[in-house]
Design a protein that fits this description.
heterodimer, A: mainly alpha, ABC transporter involved in vitamin B12 uptake, BtuC, 3 domains, two-stranded antiparallel sheet, B: alpha/beta, Rossmann fold, seven-stranded mixed β-sheet, five-stranded parallel β-sheet, 12 helices, 19 strands, 38% helix, 19% strand
Chain lengths: 538, 431
């Protein structure tokens, strides 16, 4: 076999003796890397520690590649290589020097496997190795990973790094990491008390976890201090929890608003019971998928703009489908709600099965662009980017729709036709044309809601089904024919749901909401914001 | 090359013989053995079940290439119960009494299985059920080729406890019979292992739940008690995608709070970008990535049949492969497709699993399976990080629930009972 595989331990011992000699250093790392493929996960963990112990500059980058699962063994010569997927093959390079080594198909490569335990070991090793990095952001990541792993052996290193640290942000995290680590050691009482204060001052969930964990091991003199700290943090968190719930509620409300706002036009303004509304939302989501698919294949650089491209396309596609539905089915059924309900329900099944036949029954992957991934902290709130953008998007769509209805000639005609069809007709408005456009507008809005929902939900033929009930609920609750009612209704239901969920659970919470709406409709059959005037009786 | 040639030769021979048969006998149309396929091709479950329908067509096609069964061709009779539970019973009745099928392969959800049970009992036919389920059942006419709880849930919990050192548990599931029963078994099991009640959080959500913000942040809060925490997920179907997306966005990494899922396979992951999910786990008896010659051959043939070289395979598909092979063997052994003869013949038969080891049909109508724990990779596949050393026999009645631990199922003489009480020595369950 490969000669290096047989002598790693010897080399390691040798290297430990003569760490000053840089030549031996290089060989040592190489030898260790070559032992990575062997043995079990725990053997590999040892090699990772040994690698980290060498302190070599190149170790951090090798460990990173290993942690990402991109390290392979080439079968023909047993060489450890870094592989990156390039089309059907893998582009290989030397993990130490970065020298390109050509390409190979996956069948010629054996992956060096890592599991969660190894990933943790790698994370903490990289943290220790990069704690002195010149870049503050790298140091910050390093300090964070030390904070998560809190390894007593790293204490000396932390002290050293803290002494040299100039960036206050990084310093705070390092101090916290140091305090966390100290609580795990058998340091003196004074030092531990100081550490408890540091952690308590941080005051977030991580701090709470650290304090709770230390409670069982801390000496009894410290228990009151820790308990005080825990109680303090819990009080603070409880307050933030309330706010966090409001945010979750608004976010759920914005999703409901998006799903319902198209229906507020077709059902609310036109009075068509459109059971195929959910499927139009689904078509919007599939348009997003199709756009992303084209971008993935032909223009990978544009991926972050895929949603911006999908929006107008989804509007166009679904608006056209909507107009076709209105011209083909619904216009024959005005004034016959039961038949409309049945016809559109049948249509929804047809649309679902068509999509299933074309795209297959499985979920389709719609990626989140970079600016919609992850979360950020705002005070004690944790806000995910995709939810934030969806809230913003829902409000923008609402504002635009309101402007279209109230400020444009088309909006004026729509309102005229829905309020008094015969009068509008005798004023020279082409009512069939306006009907088609109104339905198209409602469908188009549903389509762009689909673009947003593709970011948080499955893109599957069933996407629409899960939103149709909620959409009707919002429109009926808010008051049929009133856009503001839809807005207030959606947000109210969202927030109410999120406040019920922690107490009642998701299942009961939903039932409570439904019961509440039934009772509410009994009291106020026309919803929150009832339309007044002649339209009501028409 | 030579393989192909021989197969073609066999096919030609089979074709020739069937032509001869049809020339000689006028009712050659009836000279097929019919196999019922009862999987939803529309509605919510189509996402999972359509693939199983294709799997059955593939298996029947393969068998016919090998010359059919008992000298006859197999013929698939496909019906669509449309994810509608009562319709499952109607379609099952139609398959058995109108189409006169020899056996039925089908169902996915437990509620669909429960709805067809009386039909199979009344008309005395055979059902092969390919999905992991909650156990607490063994019926004379049903063969359970998916995992029982002791072949999936219990080993997964053991893995987390021993290898990851998990002390705090979130049991999250969709609100229906499979997660509820499984969580009941798991809760009892964890308590028996000394886990305190306050270290177990149980949470149920409706089907297709899409807003996971509160629950994921609850999990995060539950996990910040200073003890290693893991989530055991029996969340079903479409709800998984938004769940995993929310996990990724709220920054719950597998290294900190791993999620082990019992209903998430390669097919479900196809709709998610798995990059942020690397390291989360799933427990199954089959993964596409398992490197055995049987599996390699199966995947190659399956992809050729379906005409898509990226098509994934998953655990319930393997269950159908195993179940179908066992049924074929049993029919060959019995020399007939008659239900009673096949029921007798199939017990004790063996066929290789695609992941290594031998699947044996046990007297309780469950089979032996290896248990694999896999971690999600960034290419949407699983990598096995742990597996049982030997195959695990399926246990119909959980030994961890007080009301079912004395019950055994044994469909061989002299017991011949699906819920035999070993304490009272009588058939008829716990009462």
């Amino acid at each position: 076999m490969h000669p290096f595989r047989l002598i790693p331990k010897l080399l390691l011992a040798l290297a430990l003796l003569i760490t000053a000699a840089p030549g031996a250093f290089a060989q040592d790392v190489e030898a260790l890397v070559n032992t990575l493929p062997e043995g079990s996960y725990s053997d590999r963990e040892k090699v990772i520690f040994d690698l980290a112990a060498t302190g070599d500059d190149r170790v951090a980058s090798i460990l990173k590649v290993l942690g990402e699962g991109d390290l392979y063994v080439r079968e023909e010569d047993g060489r450890v290589v870094a592989g990156k997927r390039a089309g059907r093959d893998y582009a290989l390079s030397d993990p130490l020097t970065g020298e390109a080594l050509g390409a190979a198909p996956s069948s010629d490569l054996d992956k060096i496997r890592v599991n969660n335990r190894l990933r943790r070991a790698i994370r903490s090793a990289i943290g220790q190795l990069t704690l002195m990095s010149p870049s503050p952001s790298v140091r910050l990541t390093a300090a964070r990973s030390l904070l998560r792993n809190a390894d007593p052996d790293a204490l000396e290193l932390l002290d050293e790094a803290l002494a040299a640290e100039t960036d206050t942000g990084v310093k705070t995290v390092m101090e916290l990491a140091r305090a966390t680590t100290i609580l795990k050691t058998d340091a003196g009482l004074d030092e531990k008390t100081a550490a408890i204060d540091t952690v308590t001052a941080r005051g977030n969930r991580e701090a709470l976890a650290v304090l709770t964990a230390s409670l069982s091991t801390a000496p009894s003199e410290l228990t009151p201090a820790i308990e005080r700290g825990i109680a303090g943090i819990e009080r603070k968190l409880a307050m933030w929890d309330g706010l966090q719930n409001v945010w979750y509620g608004l976010s759920l409300g914005s999703v409901l608003l998006l799903a319902a706002i198209g229906l507020a036009i077709t059902f609310g303004v036109m009075g068509v019971i459109n059971m195929a509304h959910g499927e139009i939302v689904m078509l919007g989501a599939y348009t997003t998928f199709a756009v992303q698919q084209v971008i993935r294949i032909s223009f990978p650089g544009l991926f972050d703009y895929s949603l911006a491209i999908a929006l107008p396309l989804a509007f166009l596609v679904t608006a056209l489908v909507g107009i076709a539905i209105e011209r083909g089915f619904i216009r024959w059924l005005y004034g016959r709600p039961l038949e409309t309900l049945l016809a559109t329900w049948g249509l929804s099944l047809i649309l679902q099965q068509t999509v299933r036949t074309i795209f297959g029954p499985n979920n389709r992957e719609v990626g989140n662009p970079g600016w919609m991934s992850g979360a950020f902290d705002l005070g004690g709130l944790s806000i995910t980017w995709n939810r934030l953008w969806i809230v913003v998007f829902a409000l923008v769509v609402f504002a635009i729709l309101l402007a279209v209805l109230n400020r444009t000639p088309l909006g004026l005609q729509m309102r005229a036709v829905t309020q008094n069809r015969r009068m509008a007709s005798s004023m020279g408005i082409r009512t069939p044309w306006v009907d088609a456009l109104t339905f198209g507008l409602g469908s188009g809005i549903a389509g762009i809601a689909g673009v947003a929902l593709s970011q948080i939900d499955n893109v599957s033929p069933n996407l629409g089904q899960s939103y149709i009930i909620d959409s009707f609920m919002v429109v009926v609750f808010g008051g049929v024919g009133n856009l503001w009612g839809t807005l207030v209704g959606a947000l109210t239901l969202g927030v109410a749901n999120k406040f019920l969920e922690p107490f009642a659970g998701a299942v009961l919470g939903k039932i409570f909401i439904l019961v509440f709406i039934i009772l509410f409709i009994q009291r106020r059959p026309r919803g929150l914001f009832a339309l007044k005037g002649r339209a009501v009786d028409a | 090359m030579s393989m192909k040639m021989t197969r073609r030769a066999v096919m030609t021979a089979a074709l020739a013989s069937s032509i001869c048969l049809s020339a000689g006998i006028t009712y050659a149309q009836e000279e097929t053995i019919k196999v019922g396929v009862l999987h939803s091709l529309s509605g919510t479950m189509a996402i999972s079940e359509t693939t199983l329908k294709d799997t059955m067509l593939f298996l029947i096609d393969e068998q016919n290439r090998k010359g059919g069964l008992l000298g006859k061709k197999l013929e698939a009779v496909v019906v669509d119960p449309a994810s509608d539970w009562p319709l499952f019973a109607e379609k099952a009745r139609e398959l058995i009494s109108v189409s006169d099928v020899a056996a039925v392969f089908g169902c996915w959800t437990s509620v669909s299985r429960k709805s067809v049970l009386p039909v199979f009992e009344e008309l005395n036919s055979i059902l092969f059920y390919p999905v992991q389920y909650e156990g607490e059942e063994s019926q004379r006419n049903v063969f359970y080729t998916g995992a029982a709880p002791n072949q999936q849930a219990i080993p997964a919990v053991d893995y987390l406890m021993n290898e990851e050192g998990v002390e705090r548990w979130v049991l999250a599931g969709t609100d229906y019979v499979y997660p509820r029963t499984t969580n009941k078994i798991l809760e009892q099991y964890l308590m028996d292992k000394g886990v305190a009640a306050e270290d177990i959080m149980i949470n149920y959500t409706p089907f297709g739940h899409s807003d996971w913000q509160t629950i994921v942040s609850d999990i995060k809060a539950f996990g910040s008690a200073g003890k290693k925490t893991a989530v055991v997920s029996t969340i079903n179907g479409d709800a998984n995608v938004p769940f995993y997306k929310e996990l990724a966005n709220q920054g719950i990494a597998a290294e900190d709070i791993p999620v082990v899922a019992f209903s998430v396979g390669e097919e479900e992951l196809a709709g998610i970008d798995t990059e942020p999910l690397v390291g989360h786990l799933a427990a199954w008896n089959y993964f596409q990535s398992v490197d055995t010659p049987e599996n390699e051959e199966f995947i190659a043939k399956w992809r050729e049949f379906i005409g898509d070289e990226n098509r994934v395979t998953n655990d319930p598909m393997e269950a159908h492969v195993v179940g179908f092979n066992l049924w074929v063997q049993a029919v060959e052994k019995a020399g007939t497709t008659d239900t009673d003869a096949v029921l007798d013949a199939i017990i004790g038969l063996e066929t290789p699993n695609l992941t290594g080891g031998i699947a044996k049909m046990l007297p309780n109508h469950h089979i032996t399976k290896p248990v694999l724990i896999g971690e999600i990779q960034d290419d949407g596949q699983f990598e096995v990080v742990w597996e049982t050393e030997e195959v695990v026999p399926g246990d119909a009645w959980s030994d961890f629930l007080p009301e079912s631990k004395m019950i055994e199922a044994d469909w061989t003489a002299p017991i011949n009972c699906g819920n035999y009480n070993t304490e009272t020595k009588s058939c008829g369950g716990a009462s």
